[in-house]
Specification:
One of its GO terms (cellular component) is endoplasmic reticulum. This is squalene monooxygenase. Belongs to the squalene monooxygenase family. By secondary structure, this protein is of the alpha/beta class. The chain is 38% helix and 21% strand. Helix 3 packs parallel to helix 8 and helix 24 runs antiparallel to helix 28. The chain is globular and about 90 Å long.
Length: 985
Amino acid sequence: MAYQYIVGGVIASLLGFVFWYNSLVRELKKTRTSSMEFPVENRVKKTGNGEVAGAIDVIIVGAGVAGAALAYTLGKDGRRVHVIERELNEPDRIAGEGLLPGGYVKLTELGLEDCVAGIDAQRILGYDLYKDGKSTKISFPLEKFQSHVAGRTFHNGRFVQKLREKAASLPNVNLEQGTVTSLLEENGTILGVHYKNKSGQELTASAPLTIVCDGGFSNLRRSLCYRKVDIPSYFVGLVLENCKLPHANYGAIILEDPSPILFYPISSTEIRCLVDVPSQKLPSVSGGEMAHFLKTVIAPKIPPALYIAFISAVEKQNNIRTMANRTMPAAPLPTPGALLMGDAFNMRHPITGGGMTVALSDVVVIRDLLRPLHNLGNASAVCRYLESFYTLRKPMASTINTLADTLHKVFSASSDPAMEQMQQACFGYLSLGGVFSNGLSSLLSGLYPRPSSLAFHFFAMAVYGVGRLLLPFPSPNRIWTGAKLIWVASVRRLKKTRISMEFPVENCVKKTGNGEVVGATDIIIVGAGVAGAALAYSLGKDGRRVHVIERELNPPDRIAGEALLPGGYVKLIELGLDDCVDGIDAQRISGYDLYKDGNGTKISFPLEKFQSHVAGRNFHNGRFVQKLREKAASLPNVNLEQGTVTSLLEESGTIQGVHYKNKSGQELTASAPLTIVCDGGFSNLRRSLCYPKVDIPSYFVGLVLENCKLPHANYGAIILEDPSPILFYPISSTEIRCLVDVPSQKLPSVSGGEMALFLKTVIAPQIPPELYTAFISAVGKQNNIRTMANRTMPAAPLPTPGALLMGDAFNMRHPITGGGMTVALSDVVVIRDLLRPLHNLGNASAVCRYLESFYTLRKPMASTINTLADTLHKVFSASSDPAMQQMQQACFGYLSLGGVFSNGLSSLISGLYPRPSSLAFHLFAMTVYGVGRLLLPFPSPNRMWTGAKLIWVASGILFPLIKSEGVKQMFFPLTVPAYYRAPPF
């Protein structure tokens, strides 16, 4: 039967072959000139003399949501920030009152989530949509997030004041009331601002970088962007009291003539009503025409539950306010020394309430871009580097912008039959529920901002609208209206896409520097973990004089780094370090048992062709690391010292050593021609040596179980359950490590007892009977529950003369396969072999260019382990998506086939046969097998649709991971010029 699945799957896969091929070609084209190859020239110039004199690093103009949040974020990172805001009293606006769930997640990421506390903010879970007496509920997809994640609505002024208070609480943030009159410019570079303070005194403030976020009425943006402001409509705002919305925690949108009407709570006693009125039809407020318009035209369309409160609000004195709804596409004019953001830079129609979500997302992007920059003085270099902001912001910004402006056009009343049909199609599409409304609500919420998904749903909506017209009996008039509907949808969509979703940029600038360093030390190694200690021993054994500086020389106490795959053990032997697993009670591992839905399958490592001692090893991480350190320190030419490296010693763009504090706190400098940084996942030095893009998809909750045995000796266990996998493996002859993978959004508190309750009630019922009692005992044991963030970070090096980055400081993958140490030891072998021919490391630039081949030579092992680990974590994690569930079933079924199928994947997991092409083949075969399971013996439309989605999901998982590793380096390394770099004799 299994082989029938395979054959059937091959036939079925032909249905998706065109999609698969086109997708691959697009990925190849997209990455050919950029992400596939290592960006050798993309480096910020550091000359050592470009520092801007003054006490301020960054000036921020405006302290609204974007400005205040950015000030706090940069201040928290140690920047000296001067914020100048026109008016520091509490703002009183009828907009900026809605924060989407995606914006709340960004607020949490910035450490500002407490700013919605204490302001009577209201939770919003979605919207009720009303049209022609019918209604449908649109709920945000919050199931995968912790309970506190939701939308929030509030008084704008209260929220802004909270943000300002947070920013002003930092000692290095100066929040000042003043009016910026102009930018201080010299030779095309912005050096600061001219402003008047609160008392009217004219002053000048200078800084290397000025960030302008002074709102939609900015008087400074004219020299920083190509502004094209449009006002498609106005909001007429009212506050309703003593009433309730039809459904608690849900806003309401009423689709009526002339435009939509919005209702949402802004406090526990107030509801905001916003009536959208086309710009050409705005009645006068002062002349009473507006009140008459609201009573006669709008009031009859208000739901009965709100009618009386609406009339009272209209009659209440000074309660009617208007606001222009401005739109402005992002069209930046990059200027050295300045950056534009917020509503001063980009505005969309506020109908979806997405403005603050985009602003906070932009703040996160800018924070991450500025973190690696120690010196902002080289304005031109920083400007070119920050151009990447305009592309990195696109997923969130373009999705929210396009959706908001499109929905406003669709929701607005029109005499055009095609537009009327488009509105009917939109309402009908959202009323379908399931994947249709969930897809749009996931975009609307800002939780899953994917422009491709947005395009898909708009296309599907147009197709749905045409289908409504043509069924059951198409007529010439209906066909014509359907054609117009497609035309209207295309024009609306493509016009916005052209200006909103594309922005070709150069990310960074060249970093130069050349120098020869002579001294008693050949190589400095920062960090003496697995990578650092193994490298120190290897280089020392080759005769190099090595100085190792490690923060803490006591044995580490970690819940990770406890697994060495068979491929890693082979590398350990190659380095002469295989005796480091002796005498630490290390346990042999020959494979893993995989459990799902009561079924189990055994995955054995292919060890038949190796000597009997070759196998995986599990142990206490600290014991293994101490063994490696002892081996390194035993060499007379290796100096292992306890100390904390504070910064790299840099001159004219070349790293010449490090500044560090020794054990007694004395500040010292160590110099060497080459500094290798491998100080772990929390590295404070990597920001100038790579483009760090750290993600935390999940956390491991770790326990130590005692007095129990695993189902099969020398085999770990992986249990595929909700919410994520559970791992068991021995770390000594009497202890078993349990790691529970918990999604980042759902991590319970350990200190509050929520974690123990979660483990007992959710996880314990899924534990095998042999381990259940020990698991419950481990949960109840004091201080036995520990958590660890599972960080992932693709390798994106920034070659710097005199320095090299490696280990977890450089590249991390999800630890579900335990491949981290195997990749690290493989990298040590590559570096050792590259350095062996070099007698003199003094020519830093030449050595730097030569060592760029390391990033390609490491790929077979690194890319295989990385891609497989991140893919399996995504596949093994529980999901409500039927396609993802089928993908998990396909993976389990494929591994259960045995033979070439499970052996192929286990050879990759083990690190013994790291071949990226084999990885791609097996993942493709797994997808084909999954499609075959669906279509045999009787394919149905639903099964075919799920099969197509399965192919789409598999592509969505695999292609981004391959792209991050580099397609050319991974599959075609011989085409990468750096592969052929010869030693600089």
